[in-house]
From TrEMBL:
Name of the protein in its database record: HTH cro/C1-type domain-containing protein
Organism whose genome encodes this protein: Spumella elongata
Domain HTH cro/C1-type: start-end pairs: 97-151
Record-level Gene Ontology MF annotations: DNA binding
SMART domains, per the entry: HTH_XRE
PROSITE patterns according to UniProt: HTH_CROC1 (PS50943)
GO CC term, one of those recorded: nucleus
Pfam family, one: HTH_3
Key words of the record: DNA-binding, Transcription, Transcription regulation
Listed InterPro entries: Cro/C1-type_HTH, Lambda_DNA-bd_dom_sf, MBF1_N
Length: 154
């Protein structure tokens, strides 16, 4: 016995037998790109709208560069003859770091593993070649439990 609506689904009622026709969109008109095509349209009396795109045809970004906004900024950079250097850790800092590490009987590698840093970082700080990083200095202070000298040479 089959009850109505309880049997297997049938696809007979869902079949579509009439043809379906697909159409392409009508062409919207060609944008004239060359100047001769624009001039020909103007001679015929057709309304022509021209618009210049921002930096169109140029190999430039849309943003304005600092040198373009203020030409004197580039000149100021060229005129500067002063030598600039990064700040390095001071002699007092590196000596305090070495003494604190040796007081704890730690090698550079052991201190580095406590801090989750490379041993080369500790070596650079103790050699005075490191550029001071506040996060690394805080890690050093925490690992050694002694505030190292916070002075930085210029």
């Amino acid at each position: 016995e089959s009850r109505p609506g309880r049997g297997p689904p049938t696809l007979l009622g869902a079949q579509q037998w009439e043809p379906v026709v697909l159409h392409k969109a009508a062409p919207k008109g060609k944008a004239a790109k060359s100047s001769s095509e624009v001039n020909a349209a103007l001679r015929q009396g057709v309304a022509v709208e021209t618009s210049k795109k921002m930096a169109g045809g140029c190999n430039k970004s849309g943003s304005v560069s600092v040198a373009a906004a203020e030409p004197s900024a580039a000149r100021k950079l060229d005129e500067q003859t002063e030598a600039f250097r990064h700040e390095r850790v001071s002699h007092d800092f590196k000596m305090a770091l070495q003494q604190a590490r040796l007081a704890k009987n730690l090698s550079q590698g052991q201190l580095a593993t406590q801090m989750n840093e490379k041993s080369s970082v500790i070596h650079e700080y103790e050699a005075g070649k490191a550029i001071p990083n506040g996060a690394v200095i805080n890690k050093l202070n925490r690992a050694l439990r002694a505030p190292a000298a916070r002075k930085v040479s210029k």
